[in-house]
Amino acid sequence: MHNKSPGGIIQSNQSSFSTLYRLVDMVIITLVYFLVLLYQGLSINSSDLLLLFVSIISYMLCAEAVDLYRSWRTAPNTMMIKWAMIAWGISSLVTTTYAFIFPDSIAASNFVVLSWLVLCAPTLVSWRVAFREILFRHRKKGHNTRKAIVIGATQSGYNLATQIMENDQLGIIFKGMYDDRAPARIPHEIQHQVMGSIEEAVKLAKKGEIDYIYIAMPMSAEKRIMQILNLCSDSTATVYIIPNFFMYNLLNARWQSVGSIQTLSVFDTPFQGAGDVTKRLEDIVVSSIILTLIAIPMLFIAIAVKLTSKGPVIFKQNRYGLDGKKIKVYKFRSMTVQDNGDKVQQATKNDARITPLGAFLRKTSLDELPQFINVLQGRMSVVGPRPHAVAHNEEYRKLIEGYMLRHKVRPGITGWAQINGFRGETETINKMIKRVEYDLDYIHRWSVWMDIRIILATVTRGFINKNAY
To answer: Which residues form the Bacterial sugar transferase domain (predicted)?
Structure first.
């Protein structure tokens, strides 16, 4: 077989509506800008058009970079909204930077520019959600649909078929499973879905009766998969492979190119490219605001710690940070000792090492306020898996599968596990397992909206922690 293109064989799927999306985005950005100018009673001149041009070009480039105009048929709304907001956020940053560097070339006031950028964000999102809802209703009526089959009567194939049938808004009509094995070798609950042999499936594809082919076979059947791919190449059907390792809990898996070779990252971080920039901006903004608000309370706490017990005000403990690298995490000292060695004992109820003031600080989580400085330093995030002492990490990584994957992101001051009740002492291994499960779920599902939800939940549920000793 001859190599196709040097870029590899896997390309992003482009939506048939991609041109429409691009045009509507440009119209919205332009229309909102003109409406703001008209509302302010300003006329449109060449300098306004230049700023508009900068904004549209930067947005289009960002949108292409994050693959915003691909098909979102099978993706959740939150994912589409996330990337639209990231593209507009970066574009807004470029636009405001241009306005700051060349103020004399901008006729519009700062208020006009800011109003325009702020109003565009919900408008760009709203029309997408509305249009998608129209498409969903259209597809439920049987319009704009695609026909799909699954080759390989396996559990992963059956799970996919179930999802297709349960989500009719996707506009995918499931036409059955195809397998060459005898019925006795196929799981009982799947047998009724098998419509015929693989040869029959390929014939349907060659006739143009099938749009999507999902190959759900074990990786051990590599030769057979290659044979099927060669047969399917004589059709116009879009072919997807669901290898059986997708049955496992992959963490932010994504395709990457190394030269002309395609690789799949199995355990990865969600914070790459625009995602990393967005998360860092979020941390800087939130931590700066909070530090401004708590500066005076922190000063009083520092004085109280110094006056009530011997030792430093700030306790600096080694923890594992991003990629498992050691970092120094700050806390107001709440104990008479400073454990930071190979063995660290967790605080327990009525622990004699805890000072009277320290007990109050730990109960109210006030001892963790200096960690907002760690956030500004880039060592931590406002939201993320809570960092554990190095000694505890070395202990639990041997006992809990996937434990170290929580270090694919920066540790946080609060997190998904904490607002779900897994905070403070973890006196049993089962509690730590649940905490790790929530941490990995957060990494897998991360979005700015999820961070906001966690921050609001942390504030509204209060800082009192009954499990903190």
So the answer is: 279-461
